C-alpha cells in the first residue's frame, strides 16, 4: 500500500525537474489538470474497495428498483462522488492503522486497513465503481430490459443463467477492443474528452486545500461548489390485422429524427475518415515515435495493462456469447451469425465514435441503425432484434465509457491496472444486482408493467420498458420494410444515409478551396446532425438553454475572464449536476412517494394543441377540432 505523508497531497505535488516546463497543448486541459503526480498515494485500499463495492451495489439496486415505477428515480454518479467523501474521511479516522505483512507467496509486502488520509486517487476509483453502478449513464444495465419485455410483455420464459450471461457479455464485450484502442483515443493530448475535466475540477475542489489571501474577494472552489449546488435545487405479426389497420404513420418531426439518425451514423464514418484518417494511420504505423505530452509521460511510471488481458477478455466474452446464441438460442432468438454481425458493427464504429466523443463531448448512438439492420435481415423476430441492438449498441457504448474513464484516470494519474480491475469488477457487480432486482420484482409484483391489468393507482407501470417494447414491435415485429421500405410511407428517409455520408466531404472541399477560413474546420456534422436528431423529445427550450449557457461560459467567459473560467467553470457544471441529482432524490422521497406533485407550467406536459393530432391521411376530427386534415 505504501506510506503517505500526514498532509493530504493532490496531483499538483511530486513534480520532477524535467516536468516543470512541460504542459498540455490543449488550453482547457492546461487550465484544469495540474502537470504533476504523487505516485506514493495508495489506491488499492480497504476503504476504496468497501465504499466502492457498497456504492456500486446500492446504486444498482436503487436504479433498477425504481426504474419500474411510473416516476422513475435515477441515482447518478455525482451523488456518490459527493456522498463518499465524508465516508472516506470517516473510515480514515476510525480504522486501525496497524500494519500487516503479507505471506511470502503473495509478495511479502506490508499493508494496512488505514494507510493514511483519504486521498483523491481512492476517491476517483470509488467514482468509477459508482459509474458502473450507474451503468455508465444508462441508470441500469440496458440488457435487463430484454429480460423485462420477454417475461412481462411477450409472456415468454428465459432462464436466470441465460439472462445473466446476456447482461454480463453485453456489458463487458466492448472492453476488450476498447483497451486496444487506448493509444488512439486516450494517450493523444488532443483527444481531451471534455466531460472528464468536470470530474477533475470536482475532485480537486473536494480535496485540494486552498490558501486564502487576506483581502481577496475570491471564494474557495469547494465553497463555490456548495453554493451552486444549493442554488440549483430545482410474438408473430398478424399480417391480416396489420393490413386492416393500415401502414404505420409517424409525425413529421419523428420521421425526420429517424432520418437524421441515419445521417449521423453515415457522417461519423466519413468525418473521421477525412479529418482523422491520416493521423490514425500514422499512429498505427509509428505510435511510439510521437512525442507524448506531460500527462502521458507521468503515466509511464505505472505498469501498463498487458495486451493479452484485452485479447483474453474479448475471446472469453465472444465465446460465452456464442454459447448463449447456440445452446440457448430458443430463449434469445439471435443466431450466431447475428451476434458476429453485431460485434462487427460495434467494433467498426467504436474508434470513430470515440474520436467524436473525445473531441466534441457528443456521442452518436448505434441504437437506431442496429434496429434497422436486424429488422431488414430478420423481420418478425422482436427478441432477436433487441438482442442484436444491445450487442451492437451497448458493446460500443460500454467501450466509449471505458475509454472515457481511462482518460479520467490518465488525468488523475491512476494506475491503469487498478482502473481496469475496478471497472470490470464494478460492471459484474452492477449487472448481477440489476438482474437480481429485476428477477425479484418480475416474480413478486403481479401484472407488473401491464397497464391495463394493474390497479389504477399502481406505480409499477415500467415506462422505460414500455418504450423498449414499442421499439421491438416497430423494428423487430413489423420491420423497417413496412416503414422505410416500399411497403411503408417513409422510403425517402433512406436518402439521409447518402446526405450524411456526403456532408463531411463537402465541408472538406470548402476547406481545401478556402484554407484561410479556419471556421470551416469547426463544422462538425456528426455533432450538428446528431444533436438535431434528439429534438423529439428535446424541445427548443432545451436547445436554447444549452446554446446560451455554452456560448456565455465557453466563449465569452473563456475568452475575456480566463482566470474565473479556470477556477470555477467546471466546478459550476459539477455543482449544477449535483444539485439536480440531490433535489431529484429529495423530491422523490418527500413528494412523489406521498403521491404529491408540484404543478407549474414546466410540468404540465405538451402546450401545443396540435401535438396530439392524427397524422394519417383523411382523418377529420370535426369542425370544432384545431387539427389539420392531411
UniProtKB/TrEMBL annotation:
The chain crosses the membrane at residues 46-66, 73-92, 124-146, 158-178, 219-235, 255-276, 308-329, 335-358, 365-384, 420-442, 492-510, 519-535, 541-558, 570-591. One of its GO terms (cellular component) is membrane. Keywords: Membrane, Peptide transport, Protein transport, Transmembrane, Transmembrane helix, Transport. It is found in: Membrane. Residues 1-10 have a biased composition (Basic and acidic residues). It is a multi-pass membrane protein. Residues 1-26 are annotated as: Disordered. One of its GO terms (molecular function) is oligopeptide transmembrane transporter activity. One of its GO terms (biological process) is protein transport. PANTHER family: ISP4 LIKE PROTEIN. Belongs to the oligopeptide OPT transporter (TC 2.A.67.1) family. This is Oligopeptide transporter 4. It comes from Triticum turgidum subsp. durum.
